[in-house]
Design goal:
The chain has 379 residues and is an alpha/beta fold. The protein folds into two domains: 287 residues, 7-stranded beta/alpha barrel, CATH 3.20.110; 78 residues. The protein has 17 helices and ten strands. The longest helix has 27 residues.
Length: 379
């Protein structure tokens, strides 16, 4: 029997303020560089959507569904603004048919730093947060933006992870569909880009040749594919976006488990996939030689501004370690960690050069000011 893993990403970045370094002494805090009011406003909107979607998913689980969530640490922090969001995930967890993955706490690019100590620290922080909240230790790892880096596999294995989920890009798969459990330092599942985006981006497009996408049609597509397991990964809140346009997405989610079963496909979590297909694991040499990320590494490191930003983060991180005993250290470290959000590098993507340029100027102004503050308190 073929299987499908469905993973939803739940993440909301801290919104950056438009900032220009001022003169004189000031006390730095999150509100210095981040627009907390906008972040809260966006969270309020997202919270309502997620709670509503979780109710629909509960019905799907009652019909035999199994799902996995990758909830960022920043979103878990924001859930303190509305505990009902956390409670809705706890209700899903209580079904026993939900798995929670671990990732870098701040949804950051720390896996690309030369020194992986910050990466390990963020992963442990997130792993502990998931355990404290949901009572389960994650065994599946999903890197920020599905980044695949050959440097992190051994470390993750040493942290007792059993599975890695990454992007099924062409440079890794040589044009083939990602339909197996693959062999690396950790057993690896690769996102099926097209099928994931059928749900995430195309579901409500009436001009799309696959419209309307009903559960039976989608299940038949998966059933007709070669291979063992298909991995779907998408932003969870996109389900709510489609719900606003029409209610078909709710019916699709509720009916999907039975439709898949009717076509001989079972729904499983990544940890279940490892146990089910470990004897059929497929070697893929490119996992040890290629790097990738969601929509390709060029989306985050495709231009000079993005690479310079990464290098500046590395330098500031090293300088931050020189003030570990200072009273400002914890505050500066939290700000620094949030400035490593992958969302900020994506904002500098070359797809829109004017916006990318403006945001780059703003971000480098912030980095410059933070670095000044760190250097001023250096012992």
């Amino acid at each position: 029997m073929k299987s499908v893993c469905i993973i939803g990403e739940v993440h909301l970045p801290h919104q950056i303020r438009w900032y220009w370094p001022g003169e004189g002494d000031k006390i730095l805090g999150m509100s210095t560089y981040f627009d907390q009011e906008t972040t809260f406003s966006r969270f309020e909107k997202k919270a309502k959507d997620i709670i509503r979607t979780n109710h629909v998913l509960n019905d799907s689980i009652d019909n035999g569904g199994k799902y996995t969530f990758n909830i960022s640490g920043t979103f878990l922090d924001q859930c303190k603004w509305d505990p009902d969001v956390t409670d809705s995930f706890l209700e899903l967890a209580a079904t026993g048919n939900v798995e929670f993955a671990a990732s870098p706490y701040y949804h950051s690019i720390c896996s690309l730093y030369p020194d992986l100590s910050k990466f390990k620290e963020e992963v442990k922080k997130h792993k502990d947060a998931i355990f404290n909240l949901f009572g389960t230790a994650p065994t599946t790892f999903v890197n920020s933006e599905l980044i695949l880096s050959k440097h992190i596999g051994k470390m993750l294995k040493g942290m007792e992870f059993e599975c890695l989920v990454s992007e099924g890009s062409h440079n890794v798969l040589n044009g083939y569909d990602p339909v197996h459990l693959y062999h690396d330092h950790l057993p690896t599942l690769l996102r099926h880009i097209d099928l994931s985006e059928d749900i995430e981006n195309r579901f409500s497009e009436k001009e799309w040749t696959g419209y309307p996408l009903i559960a039976d049609k989608f299940a038949s597509w998966i059933s007709s594919m070669e291979g063992d397991v298909v991995t779907l990964y998408f932003n969870y809140d996109t389900l709510a976006k489609h719900h606003k346009n029409e209610s078909k997405i709710c019916r699709f989610v509720r009916e999907l488990p039975q439709a898949l079963a009717d076509h001989g496909v079972d729904m499983i979590t990544p940890s279940m996939a490892v146990h089910k297909y470990k004897k059929k694991i497929v070697k893929l040499a490119t996992l040890k030689t290629e790097s990738t990320a969601r929509y390709g590494m060029h989306s985050m490191l495709g231009n000079h501004m993005q690479n310079l930003y990464l290098n500046e983060l590395v330098t500031i991180g090293q300088e931050l370690e020189n003030i570990r005993d200072a009273r400002e250290y914890d505050t500066f470290k939290h700000i620094y960690s949030c400035l490593g959000q992958t969302d900020l590098l994506l904002d500098m993507n070359s797809n829109n050069l004017q916006i990318a340029y403006e945001r780059s100027v703003n971000l480098f102004s912030i980095l410059s000011d933070l670095r000044r503050a760190i250097l001023e308190v250096r012992p």
